[in-house]
Amino acid sequence: MGEKRPPIEPLDYLSGVKVVDIGDLRVARGMSRRPHSACKHHRLHYDKAERRVWCPDCETDVEPFDAFKLLVENFHQASERLERRAQEIKSAEEHSLISIAAKKIDKAWRSRTMVPACPHCKQGLFPEDFKYGIAASLGREYAEARRRVREDKEGRRE
Q1: How many helices (H) and strands (E) does the chain have?
Q2: Residue 93 reports pLDDT greater than 60
Q3: Which domain holds residue 141?
């Protein structure tokens, strides 16, 4: 079923090492003696009885570390896709929120007898107030902090 593994060669170290085998150095440094396969082993099968992992495409055994590495890489790619998707959904919701708010305020201003009120100070907001643009802007973090302080003060009075 595929390539045969190279035989295990017994080494004689009784009289000392006379010649250093480059293959032994490669194995010691984590590099295999076997040639690199062009197959990426996208489909892995495991056999519980033989306790081995193999690729049905090239019909070779896959090293346990390589199989683990493939699983980790696939998991990492899937989690990155989920994070990207969550970010896309969040930005779409934020954009939708702005569009919905703009439509509601526009609908409220079309009324002939009523104007929308500020949800915090309850003062009327007239279209004429924004005719020449927005007079002032606040940083979002600063505005949120002011809102929290105001809500805390209102909560304490009750």
Answers
A1: 3, 3
A2: yes
A3: 115-158
Taking the C-alpha atoms of residue 28 and residue 25, their distance in angstroms, rounded to an integer, is 5
- How far is Cα of residue 49 from the mean position of the Cα atoms in its chain? 36
Burial level of 83, CB count in 10 A (0-12/13-18/19+)? exposed
Per DSSP, helices labelled H in 111-158 are 140-157
Buried b (16+ CB within 10 A) or exposed e, 18-55: eeeeeeeeeeeeeeeeeeeeeeebeebeeeeeeeebbb
Report the number of distinct structural domains present in the chain: 1
Task: Kindly report, residue by residue over 130-145, the tens digit of the pLDDT.
Answer: 778 777 778 889 888 9
The verdict on residue 129 lying in a domain is yes
* Stated pTM of the model: 0.41
| pLDDT reported for residue 36 | 56
Phi then psi dihedrals of residue 47, to 5 deg: -120, 115
What does the pLDDT look like over 40-87, one tens digit per residue?
A: 787 888 888 888 888 888 878 888 888 899 889 999 999 999 999 999
In a domain, 156, yes or no: yes
**HSE-CB for 112 with a 13 A CA cutoff:** 0
